[in-house]
Write the structure tokens for this entry.
Amino acid sequence: MQVKRIELPTPLPVGMVNAYYVEQGETRFLVDCGPRYQPAQETLLQELKGLGLTPSHLNGLVLTHGHVDHAGLASLFQTAGVPIFAHPQTESWLQPGGAWDKYRRDFLRTLYQQMGVPESEIQKTEKEFFFLENLTGRSVVDIPLIDGHPFPLLPELRVVYVPGHAQAAIALWDEKTGDFIVGDQLLPDISANAFIEPLPGALQGRDAQRSKSLLQYRENLQLLHTLPLTHVYPGHGGIFTNSALLIERRLSGQEHRRNQLLQRLRERPRTAFELAIDYFSRHRQETSLIISEVLGYLDWMEELGEVVPEKRGGLIQWCQVECA
């Protein structure tokens, strides 16, 4: 199996994103495709042209997850007749402006209000969501990928669900060689944010339960630590080896951050927003990121019996158990 990394520009703070061209025999497919952003599209088409290909020559497009920097150009390939392979729930991310986007926006507005986020900040994040919607074309998942099953185009690859950074996320693992195409679940240079998402099943987004994404992320990292991985192909940054050491560093770093946040709660009860802007003062403007991050650690501390949430005047504050 030959894998070529293709770096694509994005208009997002994350910077460059990786797509991968995979070829074995007559089988040719892409993993991820970048945002619907003209420089990204031009770069990707030029890279394919250098390989003597156009989108229609591909047997498939695999999406590791539905975030715009990875899936925004999916419609370009679907229009060319290329089937899309992804986690079945990824489709909710491929319908910008649709029912799921409204469900997600309503959920987040309610969540942010409960977490003490000022109205001005909520409105700013809503404008950011509309901007992100414009970076995704409308498409559908043609072939859902199932955890543990062989990848249909190349059966030696196994589908592995990797929830945490996103709820609907997959990786492809070659059990013989150890090669692992992982999306954003395991990155060499930064620890991926475990985004809070609404769980399906509510009549309206504002009534939805939320994911406990950091707990899922840690559980999945512990699973990945048991796999004999060799070359890891991440969604951002360079291809790397020695994933076990990186996973150990990530888990240890999370322990350290949990202790730091717990120390702040020993001083006084706080809302998630108060804790977020105190701890992540340099990222004060990235509300959605820092709220997801802090809520993940609060979930973890609550699971360990270290903190308890308390509702006060429509807000939720967290308090160390001793002061409850």
Summary: The CA atoms of residues 310 and 317 lie 5 Å apart. The longest strand covers residues 17-24. The mean pLDDT is 96.
